[in-house]
What does this fold into?
Amino acid sequence: MSYIDKIFPNPLPTVDEIEAKYPRRNLPDGAKVTRVAPSPTGFMHIGGIYAALINERLAHQSGGVFFLRIEDTDTKREVEGATEVICSSLADYDLNIDEGFDRNGNEIGAYAPYRQSERKTIYQAYIKHMLETGKAYPCFATQEELEALRKTQEASGARPGYYGRWAKYRDYPVEKIEEKLDAGIPFVIRFKSNGSYNNKIVIQDGLKGKINFPENDLDVVIMKSDGLPTYHFAHVVDDHLMGTTHVIRGDEWISSLPLHIQLFKEMGFKAPKYTHIAPIQKMDGDSRRKLSKRHDPEADVRFYDKVGYPRVAVIEYLLNLVNSNFEDWKRNNQTKSYKDFPVSLNKLSPSGALFDFVKLNNISKEIIAKMTTEEVYDAVYNWAEKNDANLHNLMTANSDYVKAILSIERTGAKNARKDIAKYSDVSAEIEYFFDDKFAISDEMKAELKSVKKYVELVDTYIPMFNENDTKDEWFAKMQKLADDFNFAKNGKEYKANPDAFNGDISSVVKVFRILITGKTQSPDLSEIQHVMGKERVLSRLNTVKNI
Ligand code: GLU
It folds into this structure.
């Protein structure tokens, strides 16, 4: 019995059998096969959606395949429920996977299993083959031995790591290996690197271009003592068998690239094209930093649902980070889906995109502005059901009234209202329509009182009031009031001669806006009056004397 049989006493498929089971994909020229390969170690980071979006678009716009692989070989770091969050987040954001796991975690696709922990025998078959061909070896180094090695290397100024002459078990005699195995000493399997640190290699990255590296000479662990492979080894086997043509992943992996390329070569596989993308960053004072799981709520994908951004707004925002020409394209293709936009890898910023809420809000406002009343109503209602019980109750009890409120400056409006960026903004936009939630703050009272003749203005308007006035009819009444009470027609006229007037027409309108809405800014007042109805508006106007 060879020592290799002692390492793998149970029967394993041969490498040829596995290769036959997962044949090369038959795809048209140019079709890209991409994947997302998250480790289930916590919540879904917005950067994960960002990377998935790039991979999904590149695959699907080329007629290729986009798949999901769960990289769960590091069992210590695994967090319960994380896989479910990954599957549902991808589905929620319409990042349709062709293979892997659907929203409910059901496995789909011909290259299954797509969960690395279920591919143990596949990896072991390749590791066995590596042992047989002299490209790997068992290593019995204990933690203490490795620690001692590190200290010796440090003291002598040598480069740290398990390589070359430092790799004690690299050429360990077979009898001794057998002895240790027989004694049940724990071991890992290491890759026997044939690289030399002094050799320089050039690797082409899809975004960063040609990068120079020293060759990898580290004998990295490819199988841990629990029999599971490390990420480095597992992804090489998987991307080979699953036919990945393009790997687009975070640039924290760039330093592992020489090893990965070397592993592909030594195993006789064709390496995919690698592109390393910088993480999404944000400004912190004067400097940039990565969006952090710990400090930034917006790093967690669930944040966007919670505050109520339409998911398509988040995706369009991310696309705008991916390719800054997306915005122009969108302006010229207003009715098209973002899926018609051709994503281009070389338009990505190599230094990384900056997260910007103002931009996200603007994109979201545009999207919400284009929704019909029914669409906004349904979206807000569904959002409130999960996130805002008060709003949900209010909408349930007054659905027609709330629809009318949401239709203000919406249906058919030339310039649809753009004051809602997220569904959590809606409460503040509709509460003042309800008497029990309406109040005029002291600050607003002071604003109101700062307008000269405000009581007379209101008293004069009340008999003229008609809730069915069009915007023009209503504004004509404002102009008449301005005229009668000596307010200038516009700001310019007033500024030219401030002493001659009591103010300008905007002050006149402000009086009514504050009395009716409690705010100095609101959508069109004529429409608001119409939706509120005569009785409610007049009763609000009549409070003017008590202020
Ligand atoms: N499992 C790795 C990660 O979560 C995947 C890296 C890759 O895409 O190759 O970062």
Notes: The mean pLDDT is 96.
